[in-house]
Amino acid sequence: MEISINAAILCPLPFPKSNTARWKPFKAPSLRFRFLRKNGDANGLFRAHSKLEVEDHDNAEMPQENFKESDFESEVKHNHIWQLFKEAQQNILYLNNQRLLAVEELNRANQEKQLLLDRIEQLEAEKRAGVGKDKQSLCCELLLRIDSMVLTGMINTAEASNLRKAVMDYKISVADISLDNVQKSDAELLSELRHFSYGSKKSGFHIIHICTEMAPVVEVGSLASYVTGLSCALLRAGHLVEVILPKYACLNLSEIQGLREIEAESYSYFDGQLHGNKIWTGVVNGIGVTFIQPLYYSSFFNREKVYGYSDDFERFSYFSRASLDYITKSGKQPDVLHIHNWETAIVGPLFWDIFVKQGLGDTRILLTCHGFDSQCLEQPDKLALCGLDPSRLHRPDRLQDNAKTHLVNILKGGVVYSNKVAIVSSMNSKNRIIHSLNHGLEPTLSIHSDKLLVTPCGFDNSTWDPSKDKFLPQNYSEDDLKGKAVCRVALQQRLGLSENSSTVLVGCIFSELSDFEVDNLKAVVWNATRNSVQFIFMGSKMPSANRALESLQKALQGENMRFMNKYDEALSHLIIAGSDIILCQSFHDPLLQMPLKALKYGAAPIAVASNENRFRPVADHDQEATKFSQFISSTFGNMSLSEALNEIKYNPSKWKQSMVTSMAMDFSWDAECCDIHVSAYTVLKSL
C-alpha cells in the first residue's frame, strides 16, 4: 500500500533587519511518503519498507538562519511514521485475531471430525456385534418375527411350526441369520425363510418362561436375576429360550433391543369375555422377550409397583391366561413352559384343563418356587375369571388350602398341576424343605415329593470375575494372587484406612437386616475389635438396608470402621476383592449373591451367627444337598468370625490354600444350576 502526502505549508518568517530586504512566503517542499506492506509468513508476520522522497519545487534559496530544514523534515517523518506504525499495529492485531479465529475453527473442525470418526467406529462395532451375535440370539429374533406373521395372518400355525423348526434346527446358516435379514419387512423375511428346507430336530430344548420379573428390565426380588441368569446359561448350552412378561409402566425400556409392536391384537379370555392385548417384542441379553399389554384392563400393569395391590390375583391370572392364549394363537409348541412362584402358578391348572388340547400335547410344565412364604389365598369363585371351574378345583387334592379350607391356594395348585417343581435354595435339602420350611404345604409337598428338586442360585461370572473385572486396579486369579494385594491397598487408600499388612479387612454388604440381626451384628463386630481388624460396611439399593446401616453407624464408631450410606457398584467390586472376609447375612443369598461372589474373589464368606449358633446355617449332609451346600459346610459353614480371624493369624498357609481352592470352584449360572434344570427338562420330555 502506498501513501502520498503533499503539503504546502506557509511559514511566516521574521522581518529582516534591513528595511531594504525583501521577503516572500515560503512554500514547503512537496513530500511523498511511501510505505510498502507485504504479506508475511505463515505466522502472520509482516515486513515493512518505507521511503521518503522530498522534492523542492520552487528551488528557492532559503536562508539557513531563517529555517532549519532538517528539524522540519524530522518532525514530519516522525509524525507520519508514528501514524503508519499505529496502522501497522492495528493490522497485526487484526490479523492475529483472524489467525486465532482460524485456529479455533480448525480445532472445532478436528473435533467434529473425531466425533464423526468415533460415531462411524461405533456403528461399525454395532454392525460387527450384530453380525457376530451368537446364533441362539438371532434365532430368538427370527422366532419373534414368525410370531408376528402368525398374528397378522400372513401364515397359519402349521407353516409357523415348520418355519420355527427350520430356525431351531439350525438349518439356516450363520451367514443367513444376520441383522440384515432380521431388519427386513415381514413379507421379505417370510419369502427368504420359505427357501430353506427343514430337517430333523437337534437335542436342544425350547423353553418359554412365563414370569413377572426379568433383569435388567424389571427387578424386584431374586426372581429377576434367576430368570435372566438361567436363560443366558441355557442359551450358551445350546437351548432356545423365550420369556413372556407383562408390559409394565415401570419397564426399563433402555435395556430392550429392537422393541416393536406387532400390528395385530392377541385376544384372551377373562371374566366371560374376549379382551384384546397389544403384543410387543424385543431382545434382552440375547433372549427373545414378548410383552403383553392389556387394552381393556389397561390399569393392571400401568402402575408404579409390580406387586402389592389388592387385585394382584386378577392381574396375574389375566396375564397367565393371556400368555397361554398368545402361545397357542402364534402356533408355538415349546418343550417346557417354565412358570414361577404363585403369580404364574395358575398356568398349571389352565394348561391341563384348557390348553393341552390346543396343540400343546407335547409340552410339559416346570414350576420354580423361590420360597413358600407367599402362596396367594383367594375365594374359589375367582377362578372362574380366567375360565377355570371352581367346583372342580376346590378340592383337597387340588387347589383347596390345607388350613383354610374355604379358600383356594394358588401356589398349591401350581405344585399339584406341574410336572416338576424346582425349589431355589442354596443350603437346604429337599427333605428339610418339606418338613421344616413348608409354610403349611407339608401334606402337598409330601404327596408330590417325587416332583420336587432343589436348585442353588448362580451368579454372573461375566461381570464378577477378578481376572477380568474392569473395576479393579489390578486383576488376579487363583494362579496369581498379586493383584488381590493391590486391591487391598487401593481399598484402604480410598477409604482412608491405615495400610497395615497384618490388618484383616472385613467387608459387609447387605440387602436388609431385621432389628435382631442388627443387634447380633453389633455384638459380632465389637467382639472382633479386640483383634487388628478393619470393617467396611455398605448398604444396597434397598431403603431398609440404609436404615439398618445408620443404626449400625451410631453404635459402631472407631478409626477402623467405615460406612458407605449409598450403594456404589464400582466400590462393591473393590470391597469384595480387597477384603479377607465377607460377612454374610446367610449363605442362601439369592438377591445379592454375596457368598458366591466372595468365594470367586478369594474372600471367605462368614455368616453372621449368634453365640448360640441360632443363625448358623447347617446343610443336610445327604445326597440331595447341592454341591454349593456341601462345599460351604466343609469349609466356612460352621466358622464364626472369631474363628476365621484366628485361622488367618495362626494358619496363614492353610487359609491361603482354602482361598485358592474356593476361587477355582464354579458356582456360576452355567454350572450346577444349569445342569439341574437341563436334567429336569430331559425328564419332562420323557413323561
Overview of this structure, please?
- This protein is of the alpha/beta class.
- It has 3 domains: 1-127, no CATH class; 203-455, Glycogen Phosphorylase B (Rossmann fold, 3-Layer(aba) Sandwich); 482-667, Rossmann fold.
- Helix content is 40%, strand content 16%.
- It contains 21 helices and 21 strands.
- The strands form 5 sheets. Strands 5, 6, 7, 8, 9, 10, 11, 12, 15 and 16 form a 10-stranded mixed sheet that branches. A 5-stranded parallel sheet has the order 19-18-17-20-21, with helices on both faces.
- Helix 13 (482-495) crosses helix 16 (569-578) and helix 19 packs across helix 20.
- The radius of gyration is 41 Å and the shape is globular.
- The protein starts with 9 loop residues before the first strand and ends with a helix.
Cα end-to-end separation: 103 Å
**Helical content (DSSP H or I, runs of 4+):** 40-55%
Mean pLDDT across the residues is 82
Q: What name is given to the CATH topology of the largest domain?
A: Rossmann fold
Q: Pairing-aware structural class of the strands and helices?
A: alpha/beta
Tally of helical runs = 21
Q: What would you say the CATH architecture of the largest domain is? A: 3-Layer(aba) Sandwich
The tally of domains stands at 3
Q: Choose one word for the global shape.
A: globular
Q: What about the largest sheet?
A: 10 strands, mixed
**What is the CATH C-level name of the largest domain?**
Alpha Beta
Number of strands: 21
